[in-house]
Design brief:
Layout (H helix, E strand, L loop, with lengths): L2 E2 H8 L5 E5 L7 E2 L4 E2 L2 H4 L11 E4 L1 H8 L3 H12 L6 E3 L7 H9 L4 E4 L3 H16 L2 E5 L1 E5 L2 E7 L5 H10 L3 E4 L2 E6 L5 E5 L6 E4 L3 E4 H5 L7 E3 L2 E7 L14 E5 L2 E10 L5 H16 L4 H17 L1
Parallel strand pairs: 4-5, 5-6, 6-7, 10-17, 17-19
Antiparallel strand pairs: 1-3, 2-7, 8-12, 9-10, 9-11, 12-13, 13-16, 14-15, 18-19
């Protein structure tokens, strides 16, 4: 899905201290490339290899150069830049657009944004926001929690107890990322990152209780804005006819955007403390990250003993 200037403005309004300087009605213009560009050479009339499909960032250097020109020449340079179908202009350091910049922007329907950040920091932060906006993403049914640095997605049929389990984990000092619906995206490093749908962020639905605001009840440390996905836990009602994995020697994975995520299937039964089981599963996954696989180590030990006996 194409990213518009309005998408960029909404995503970075707080982080980048963005304001609309001019052309709010032009914010629907599309940004075709995620990188940002400083149009220094374009302002002096050199347009070969001009990155016109990117956000154009005007900092102190560009403003100082434009101020050195006569108004007519300044207008001509800005007309030349804006005529190249650029998506938008961002002026940094809280500076305002000169009348000639606004006049050129009006003619070619170019929105102008303003940021109070210094130019280099703005470009770094805005690049991350653009990467997130263009990253492939999907929504999955499940509750995402952070258990001691391990991102765990708890999924299962409605009413299986996902939110209640997550609530118990929060009471034990862990953090909620998203309840019921989780947004999964693949970042530029190829890592799956989970977050909440913006409208439901910080909230949980508990059957019979209703909607609760998690930070108000458990403090700000009970929430994480986003978390890497390390483990998927699928809950299902216990069924004696279903044979669940009892050794961990046949690990399963789920593929999301080409990334294989470890996946465990856990039966839910009356009296079983699922929060405790999931907590142990997360700790075990953390050990695997450190190079310790308990099931494999025990299996190797048994093979050694049996091999020794055979000799």
């Amino acid at each position: 899905m194409p990213v518009t200037v309005k998408d960029f403005f909404k995503a970075g309004q707080a982080t980048l201290s963005l304001e609309t300087e001019f052309g709010e009605k032009f914010l629907k213009k599309t940004i075709h490339e995620q990188a940002l560009n400083r149009p220094g050479l374009a302002l002096v009339g050199f347009f070969q290899h001009f990155a016109n499909r990117r956000i154009q960032v005007i900092g102190l250097s560009e403003l100082a150069y434009l101020r050195s020109l006569q108004p007519d020449e300044r207008l001509k340079r800005m007309m030349d830049v804006c005529s190249k179908h650029i998506p938008c202009i961002v002026i940094t350091r809280g500076r305002h657009a000169a009348p000639e910049i606004e006049k050129a922007a009006l003619k070619y329907h170019v929105p102008i944004l303003r940021s109070g950040m210094i130019t280099s920091r703005f470009i770094n932060a805005a690049t991350i926001i653009m990467e997130n906006l263009v990253a492939p993403q999907t929504r999955v049914q499940g509750t995402m929690v952070d258990i001691m640095g391990i991102g765990v997605l708890i999924e299962g049929a409605p009413g299986i107890g996902k939110s209640e389990t997550a609530l118990t984990l929060i009471e034990r000092g862990h953090s909620l990322v998203a309840d019921d619906v989780t947004v999964v995206r693949k970042d530029s490093a190829g890592v799956l990152v989970c977050s909440a749908v913006e409208i439901t962020r910080y909230h949980m639905e508990i059957r019979g209780l209703g909607i609760v605001h998690v930070p108000s009840l458990f403090g700000v440390a009970s929430m994480r804005r986003e978390m890497q996905l390390d483990l998927i836990i699928h809950l299902h009602q216990w069924d004696p006819d279903i044979e669940d994995d009892r050794t961990g020697l046949a690990p399963q994975t789920r593929e999301i955007f080409g990334v294989h995520v470890p996946c465990l299937t856990l039966p839910v039964a009356a009296g079983r403390d699922m929060a405790h089981v999931i907590e142990v599963a997360a700790l075990n996954q953390k050990l695997k990250h450190l190079g310790h696989d308990a099931a494999k180590e025990l299996d190797d030990k048994l093979v050694e003993i049996l091999t020794g006996k055979n000799h």
